[in-house]
Amino acid sequence: MAKAFFIQSPPLKTGRTRRKSRPNPPMRLPQEENYKASVFYYWWAFLRLNHAYIKTCENNGQGRLAKLYADFGDVRGEDFWAWWKTHSHLFSEPPVSEPHTIDNLAGYKEKPHTILIEVPLDKKLLLRLRQVRRILESKMNSTRYRMSVSYAQYPVTGKPVVAALDRYLRAWEIKQQYPRLPYADLYNMVSGREVDIQAAMKPKPRSKKNEPDPNYKKNIPNTQMGYRYVRYAEEIISNITRGEFPVFTKTRRNEP
Question: What pTM did the predictor assign?
Answer without folding.
Answer: 0.78
